[in-house]
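Fig. S4 source data, part A: sequence.
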Amino acid sequence: MIDKVVASAGAAVADIPDGASLAVGGFGLCGIPVALLEALHEQGTGNLETISNNCGVDGWGLGVLLADGRIRRTISSYVGENKEFARQFLSGELEVELTPQGTLAEKLRAGGAGIPAFYTKAGVGTQISEGGLPRRYHPDGTVAVASEPKEVRTFNGEDYVLEESVAPDFALVHALRGDRHGNLVYHAAAMNFNPLCAMAGRITIAEVEELVEPGELDPEQIHTPGIYVQRVVHVPHGEKRIEKRTVALADGTKKVD
């Protein structure tokens, strides 16, 4: 089998071109492929379409690319915690396709499974299915681009909306362990959108905290089989941040930073 390990994060993302579509794992600040995103930022790649649960926070994760105007369009389910995201969206600099979180997860999973579309109840009777949801604004605040109506069908007396899957050009994911064949194991809550993004990407690049030899991972513990992964880069000492920190004070009360 092929050794998929590359020497550095920079080498791993070197062929991601301007205008590429990119699925990025993580949820909030948990499980973000920070090293790969930093390398992508350093090489100057722009005009990107990103698919992720959220678009990072100000100054971290996808937020770094966003702040430099490198993202033209994003498909996301949660856009809070990022003031620059809100500014760009409302000023017409960024196109946003808001998608229910479960629908977004299934769009990625279905894309990785070769399923072009699926029906779901999520969004029936709302602008998700009926259209008219703003995707891009003019600088004066009027709607420049709105979502189109989607097909709705009835099954067993219930309405369902047709959603198309996604299969982006590249996917960037973060795992706790990985072997040279691309088999990945995620830690706890970092197994959020990472396995789904890994499935969906035509070329999937994984940063791993621990690189092991083939055969060292228990086959029953592997979350993403190596068949979905094309490149692996060892990132042993990545910084991890906490989105909201809750601490106990001396008087027994709690404080959220």
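Fig. S4 source data, part B ends here. The chain has one domain: 1-116+165-257.
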